[in-house]
Specification:
The complex is a heterodimer of chains A (218) and B (615).
Chain A lengths: L2 E2 L9 E11 L5 H10 L12 E11 L2 E10 L9 H5 L4 E7 L3 H17 L5 E7 L1 H6 L8 H11 L2 E4 L8 H11 L7 H4 L25
Chain B lengths: L1 H12 L12 H11 L9 H8 L3 H6 L3 H17 L5 H6 L11 H7 L4 H6 L9 H7 L1 H11 L18 H6 L14 H10 L2 E7 L4 E4 L4 H20 L6 E4 L2 E8 L2 E7 L5 H19 L1 H10 L13 H13 L2 H5 L2 E2 L5 H14 L6 E6 L2 E7 L7 H13 L1 H4 L4 E6 L10 E8 L17 E7 L5 H17 L2 H11 L4 H4 L5 E8 L4 E4 L9 H18 L7 E6 L4 E6 L3 E7 L5 H17 L1 H4 L5 E2 L1
Parallel strand pairs in B: 6-13, 8-17
Antiparallel strand pairs in B: 1-2, 1-5, 3-4, 4-5, 7-8, 7-11, 9-10, 10-11, 12-13, 12-16, 14-15, 15-16
Helix pairs in contact in B: 2-3, 9-10, 14-16, 16-19, 18-21
Classes of the chains: A alpha/beta (218), B alpha+beta (615).
């Protein structure tokens, strides 16, 4: 359910809830972006995310509009890739992250965008985030991907685009706000009408019997 | 009293605390150490005499040992480079074969004027318990190093407890990163020196010789050494004679081969082969937990030269935190058992009931864990939990930062090799903030954090688990269980003097064999620092290795050194280990030990989870 009236909300106020998934190569800063957005914190040395983390954050778009994000922060390692559809299957929006100092990370981001456009909700709002802007501000020769190139790609693919820094908190709030503004706040799209009975990502099995071989059947 | 009887009985069987092969050579060293004390000479033994008279003999034989020569050069360089550095004191002190590292009941006994025959039958407290294996492999090498030790007599301190915390930096430095090669590569020497200064190394490589993971330094830096190790291992493999371990100076190498993986532990911390092997086993389990056995096998069967570090990417921190917990010393690993939070039986029952009441359909295991201590478990009747699996989970949840730093709820595919090494389960983890004062922004320490862990075979069950967690927390809030958990955490572990007022014991470990659980006294104040705790654990390691080398049902082991007395007592029901002041009266020790054993039996249902909630 993308949009609904919060129970007991004042008349004239809107409350919408959206599912968001973060994707991208490992070590580009997905978790750091989320942590900046949700807790306004930053760790210089972060361990890799294990599995996926689920967090929520509520923002006010204006006096009468509140948006709650349910965020899946996924691990970027290759071995978790097969689990990704579970997280993006019912997502309303996605942030695909790359590292502006690592050329290969944009290629990976592009392949995520392609996968989302092919397999996720047709109305999914996708934002492309080029993270680690602080590194380039310090020493410009570290930049591996020109802003214009990424921007051109984003425009062509119909994505929101920001260069961000989770470390110095540049464009993080802006990124999520822009996504919230682009999401349909007033009408719940037809695809959302058949969504889960409770708010949240509907983790329907892809196919029966996908559990790990030999797992307990009790 | 039982204990007293078994003590006497035990003493008669103590003789073979080391593997039989080593019997011939070990007495010599002990007698040398005794002779340092200038006590009345023991009846001479042929082996002793010939060795003492012919010190140079062994060295010539040494040259015949190909691998010894190889590793001697390597490691010899190491220790000489390190000498003078912060590690030199320890390196010198921890020479495993030097007589000063020995302290035994026999010395105590002899000073009291007991019979020579008696003292000869008691052999205890040899800090380096792998001496037996060393000598079995390299018979004469040990004897020749022994002669070095004689140059520095007078010190009879137990090496691990000898001095004060002067080498705090040493053990803390153990966990610091070696650093990375810079672009010019001109800092290689510095890095290698730092790498060699570490007292403990773990290296995992593939049978094809590819480095997969090392605790210190990256593959590029130490590839030469990995090559050497690979050569040594494959040399023996070609002869169809698998290498299990070898020594170079005071350094012990232990090799564990599992499928296409070689796991190598290199330790200068005087651990026994068995202990090191258990640690390697746990690292291997961590790899299985990340990849599952079939996919590991598949990777290598498709391409034997597979670079496994790629599929393992992101799990390095789990291996490292596991390795570091071994280096710091882990009672849980030593005893292969779990620790539970001590709470009243009725409170545990209330938590069990809450778990059962809120149990989700697809739940396999549900755990409530407070800082690595189990509070409660819910499980299906036909499946028990494997301590090894839980060790991996607790390491992931409490020691490694990856899960906690996520700051939210986690959903993690994980293979529990003890449960089923061929498939993944899915684990929901959520941390509870049980502090009353929300405004205190201080970091929650590891011991304070409470995690709810819900495991399901269904990878889509996240929201089901989340709903269970919500109603579980609600239940526990209503019944006051959360408050009880917090009280128990705040209370901490009891001091030995809380249990037995005025006891001579400073610390103890008690393992209930039937429950595969252990309990222990508080580390504080005496063993709070990393170094002191490490020394405590080394004493326990030695005690554990010595006592388990005996082939009797009831075993008692008493060991005395200038800095501490340790005492072990193993029965079919429990294992008890404790540490006390040096020169503690043996009767006082035994009395305290049995009082604590009684206390544990009285408090059994508070200290241990017996049965747990079963559905």
């Amino acid at each position: 359910m993308a949009s609904r009236q919060a129970p007991g909300a004042r008349p004239g106020t809107r409350f919408a809830q959206f599912k968001l998934v973060l994707l991208g190569e490992s070590a580009v800063g997905k978790s750091s972006l989320v942590l900046r957005f949700v807790k306004d914190q930053f760790d210089d040395y972060r361990e890799s995310t294990i599995g996926a983390a689920f967090l929520t954050q509520t923002i006010s778009l204006d006096d009468s509009t509140t948006v709650k994000f349910e965020i899946w922060d996924t691990a970027g390692q290759e071995r978790y890739k097969s689990l990704a559809p579970m997280y993006y299957r019912n997502a309303n929006c996605a942030v695909v992250v790359y590292d502006i100092t690592q050329a290969a990370s944009l290629d990976k981001a592009k392949s995520w965008v392609k996968e989302l456009q092919r397999q996720a909700n047709e109305n999914i709002v996708i934002a492309l985030a080029g993270n680690k802007l602080d590194l380039v501000t310090e020493s410009p020769d570290k930049r591996a991907i020109p802003e214009a190139d990424a921007e051109a790609y984003a425009r062509e693919a119909g994505l929101l685009f920001f260069e961000t820094s989770a470390k110095s908190s540049i464009n993080v709030k802006e990124l999520f706000t822009a996504i919230a503004k682009k999401l349909p706040l007033d009408q719940a799209g037809p695809r959302n009408m058949r969504a889960a009975p409770r708010p949240g990502v509907d983790l329907r099995p892809e196919a029966p019997g996908t559990q790990g071989a030999g797992a307990c059947n009790c | 009293m039982d204990l007293q009887d078994t003590d006497n009985d035990g003493q008669q069987h103590v003789v073979s605390k080391q593997p039989p092969l080593s019997k011939a050579s070990t007495p010599d060293k002990d007698e040398r150490s005794e002779s340092l004390e200038e006590r009345p000479p023991l009846p001479p033994r042929p082996t002793t005499l010939s060795l003492l008279n012919d010190e140079t003999g062994p060295r010539t034989t040494l040259q015949a040992e190909a691998t010894t020569a190889l590793s001697r050069t390597d490691v010899g360089i190491q220790s000489s480079e390190v000498a003078g550095g912060p590690f030199s004191t320890l390196a010198a002190r921890s020479l495993p074969h030097s007589p000063k590292a020995k302290a035994s009941l026999s010395q105590l006994a002899s000073s009291r004027g007991s019979e020579a025959g008696d003292s000869a039958s008691i052999r205890s407290s040899v800090p380096n318990t792998e001496a037996g294996d060393v000598e079995a492999l390299f018979m004469d090498f040990a004897a020749s190093t022994g002669s070095h030790g004689q140059a520095a007599p007078g010190l009879l301190d137990f090496p691990e407890f000898a001095a004060d915390d002067i080498d705090d930096d040493g053990i803390i430095g153990e966990f610091e990163a070696v650093g990375e090669l810079n672009e010019e590569g001109d800092n290689e020497d510095v890095l290698l020196q730092r790498w060699k200064a570490k007292r403990k190394h773990y290296i995992i490589l593939s049978a094809a010789g590819k480095p997969i993971w090392t605790r210190h330094g990256d593959g590029g830096l130490i590839s030469g050494y990995v090559g050497v190790i690979q050569t040594i291992i494959s040399f023996y493999e070609d002869a169809d004679d698998h290498l299990r371990g070898f020594s170079a100076g005071d350094t012990r190498f232990v090799v564990l081969t599992r499928g296409s993986l070689h796991l190598v532990a290199i330790s200068r911390m005087m651990e026994s082969d068995n202990q090191l092997r258990l640690q390697l086993e746990a690292l291997y389990m961590q790899i299985l937990s990340t990849l599952t056995l079939p996919s590991l096998t598949h990777l290598f069967s498709v391409r034997p030269s597979t670079d496994l570090s790629r599929p393992l990417q992101g799990s390095e921190s789990l291996l490292s935190s596991l390795a570091d917990s071994f280096t710091r010393g882990s009672p849980s690993t030593l005893l292969s058992a779990l620790e539970c939070l001590k709470i009243r039986k009725q409170h545990r029952q209330a938590i069990n009931n809450a778990l059962l009441k809120t149990k989700a359909n697809s739940l396999l295991y549900g755990l409530i864990v407070a800082g690595g201590r189990l509070v409660s478990v819910v499980r299906p009747k036909k499946h028990s939990l494997h301590p090894g699996d839980l060790q991996l989970l607790f390491n992931m949840i409490f020691e490694a930062d990856g899960v906690k730093a996520g700051g939210g709820e986690s959903w993690i595919p994980v293979c529990l090799p003890g449960f089923n090494s061929s498939g993944y389960l899915y684990m929901y983890v959520s941390f509870l903030d049980i502090r009353n004062d929300i405004e205190s922004s201080a970091e929650i320490t590891k011991d304070e954090s409470v995690a709810i862990v819900l495991i399901s075979p269904d990878k889509e069950a996240f929201f089901e688990m989340q709903a269970m967690r919500d109603s579980l927390v609600e239940q526990m809030e209503k019944s006051g269980s959360l408050r009880e958990i917090k009280t128990a955490i705040d209370k901490g572990r009891p001091a030995t003097t809380d249990i037995v007022p005025g006891t001579v014991l400073h610390h103890f470990l008690y393992k209930s064999r039937a429950n595969v659980q252990f309990t222990m006294s508080s580390y504080a104040p005496e063993f709070s620092s990393v170094t002191r705790r490490r020394r405590l654990m080394s004493m326990y390691n030695n005690l554990h290795a010595s006592i388990h080398a005996k082939n009797t049902h009831v075993k008692v082991h008493h060991c005395v050194s200038r800095s501490a007395t340790s005492f072990g007592w193993v029965t079919p029901v429990f294992e008890f280990y404790c540490i006390a002041e040096p020169n503690t009266n043996r009767n006082a020790l035994a009395q305290s030990a049995s009082k604590i054993a009684q206390w544990v039996q009285r408090e059994e249902e508070r200290l241990f989870i017996i049965g747990g909630a079963v559905f």
